[in-house]
Amino acid sequence: MPQAPVPLTSRPEWRALASLQQALKNTPMRALFEQDPDRARRYFTEAAGLSLDYSKNRMTDDVLAGLMALARQCGVPERTEAMFRGDRINVTEGRPALHTALRNPGGDAIMVDGIDIIPEVEQTLARMASFTDDILSGQRTGFTGKAFTDVVSIGIGGSFLGPKLISEALQPYQNGQLSGYFVANIDGSDISEVLRQVNPETTLFLVQSKSFRTQETLENSQIARDWFLENGGSEATIAKHFVAVTANPKVAETFGIAGENIFPMWDWVGGRYSLWSAIGLPIALLVGMTNFRALLTGAHAMDQHFRHTPLEKNLPVIMAMLGIWYSNFWGAETHAILPYDHYLESLPAHLQQLDMESNGKCVTQDGQPVSYPTGPIIWGGVGANGQHAYHQLLHQGTRLIPADFIIPLQSHNPVGEHHAILFANCLSQSRALMAGKTEEEARQELARDGLSQNDIATLAPHKVIPGNKPSNTLLMDKLTPETLGALIALYEHRTFVQGVIWDVDSFDQWGVELGKQMGKGILDQIMGDAAPKATSDSSTEQLIRLFRSKRP
Ligand code: F6P
To answer: Which atom of ligand 1 is nearest to 156's Cα?
Structure first.
């Protein structure tokens, strides 16, 4: 009989890490820096145009070795190969997760169901290129013969967050020919505000939905279609203005989108990993196909690094294992993403979906309840704005919140001393989080300010900053399509490695289904005139009645 696997938390590697945490729990990082003047150099590594300083972590060589031993024991190298090879690592849906193939055109064959997918990837990129050319050159126009001026992308989740993030982040690379809009929410205000700004004669709509079954996207697309027809368009000219990206072309055609206007998606690409596919069409239209390909090149460079670099020097693995260290051994419940680059304002939202939809799971791959915390809450925002909002809690709150600072060395907009000041802010935050301020230092500071002994005693406890708060600093020379591609791929692999350790299926998302299922029944009741059925609870029933009482 095969032996049952040893539970994760009973393995020697796990226990060793638990002991290391006990041994280290009263050692401030300040002391670790004092003991080892070489610490910053030793905990610094580079790949694919990104550099990672991970010296401001509560860790020693022993901890790192222990984390890497756990990664090996959990099969990270083998599972990584399985992902790149196209094994069906999404076990609950029986699918491979091959987003890496999308950024490897010209690469070796990868077989899915007996078909090499690489030629399909290349053909799709070629179609995207010629479509983009046709739009930007004015060869393809709107129904009155005018060149397109606006592109409205309609999609939600992965069919929205990635393209939006990249389009914003690459704003300095936008060609200026087209203005881009992203509509996601099933809140009439979202689509209405966009439609108010665009002209039906010169607006291209991209309906972005892998499944072509997503309520928000279909309803918004219907509103866009009606608006187009009411404002000069016709059934015959819909084909000029509506394009879809989907793995479900039949339903897209039923919706009224011409077959030649449908770009493919595939089951082997997860929604939250889809920006590299034709779901990236808005990106290509806004920044050009050359920059879209450069984005893929940067991501591919990170893929190569991840696949072929020993764990100890592997950026995604180091970041993933440090995340495991804090989530599972120090009780951290959240992880902050703090980009110090205004173009990366939407990065936390994208990484939130990537990570929380991937690793927000409570059973292992074979369906057993986990006995340890899995994916943390991912949150964050752009620096320096956050310093005047939630950083107070990072510095003096009661929770341990590991953070990633992300900042380019050069700005696209070198006005005044802004970039030096921004960089100084970023460093002062990571340093303050690490070093904090002792009571003695607080007292000395207050004494220097001339306060009385009484006032010093009253104020000093409030001025103490505990410090010892861990962070990584990720750098790049400049935010370019290549470094951005590498950055997003880095986080994708970080998420993957953590999923391997926790033994969850990082590529399914069954949890979002229940709300969708219940939504249907509730909508019927909200729209109907019959007395609301006693559903399962009186709260929902009462709220339905309230809505209906104000229904126009
Ligand atoms: O929220 C669930 C989800 O399935 C995401 O994974 C996905 O990115 C999003 O909905 C949109 O799905 P689709 O592209 O099929 O419309």
So the answer is: 11
